[in-house]
């Protein structure tokens, strides 16, 4: 799952990127409103952390433009002020959640997990597909109750597929959601990760749609 972090404070931005990476996400940084606006318009993010007080362009105007352009990714807004008027303005502009600074990183991660689950139509923190289960809080994967160890890339592919069960996912889409913007992407590696996942899961839940991609569904 891929996250955009739009935050001008370099220390906080670095802390957010590190925490997201350690939690299994791929995170792209944006230090100002102009870059955030462009990246949010052109890249397929699963969620965005957006500071309202960005230089260049403020977060509210960036968010309004995303929503006007039909961009529907979940957005968690951050602000140092935290007044109720700002909260209302942010929600009315299209934000999905709100967090005032200072905050605990654990709370931000929990809010992001919830936003991503809801965006995929999932309510429970434990995602299941047949005998396969993924705990979004810990990243633990089990098959029929037995733990399965995955590499970081295998975990990202599985997590994205578990959030989008029943949908046909192309190799390009999967590639865009498991690699950061500056990573040398190769969609051919998706076939490798899918093959490894099938062997490790040992359950017929990942199906190939010839010429289209892959679909995760219990049959």
TrEMBL record:
One of its GO terms (molecular function) is transcription cis-regulatory region binding. It comes from the Bacteria. Residues 124-218 form the OmpR/PhoB-type domain. GO terms for biological process: regulation of DNA-templated transcription. Keywords: DNA-binding, Phosphoprotein, Transcription, Transcription regulation, Two-component regulatory system. Gene3D superfamilies: 3.40.50.2300, 6.10.250.690, Winged helix-like DNA-binding domain superfamily/Winged helix DNA-binding domain. The modification 4-aspartylphosphate is found at residue 51. It holds the Pfam family Response_reg. This is DNA-binding response regulator. Residues 124-218 bind DNA. GO terms for cellular component: cytosol; protein-DNA complex. Residues 2-116 form the Response regulatory domain.
């Amino acid at each position: 799952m891929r996250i955009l972090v739009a935050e001008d404070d370099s220390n906080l931005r670095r802390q957010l990127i590190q925490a997201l990476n350690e939690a299994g996400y791929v995170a792209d940084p944006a230090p100002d409103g102009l870059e955030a606006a462009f990246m949010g318009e052109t890249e397929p993010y699963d969620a965005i952390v957006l500071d309202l007080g960005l230089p260049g362009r403020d977060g509210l105007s960036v968010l309004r433009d995303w929503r006007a352009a039909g961009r529907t990714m979940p957005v968690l807004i951050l602000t140092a002020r935290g007044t109720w008027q700002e909260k209302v303005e942010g929600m009315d502009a299209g934000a999905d959640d709100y967090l005032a600074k200072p905050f605990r990183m654990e709370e931000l991660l929990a809010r992001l997990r919830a936003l991503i689950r809801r965006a995929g139509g999932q309510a429970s923190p434990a995602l299941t597909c047949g005998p396969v289960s993924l705990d979004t809080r810990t990243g633990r994967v089990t098959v029929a109750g037995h733990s399965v160890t995955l590499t970081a890339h295998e975990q990202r592919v599985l997590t994205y597929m578990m959030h989008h069960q029943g949908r046909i996912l192309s190799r390009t889409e999967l590639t865009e959601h498991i690699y950061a913007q500056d990573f040398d992407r190769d969609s051919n590696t998706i076939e490798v990760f899918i093959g490894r996942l099938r062997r490790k899961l040992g359950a017929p839940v990942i199906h190939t749609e010839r010429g289209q991609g892959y679909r995760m569904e219990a049959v």
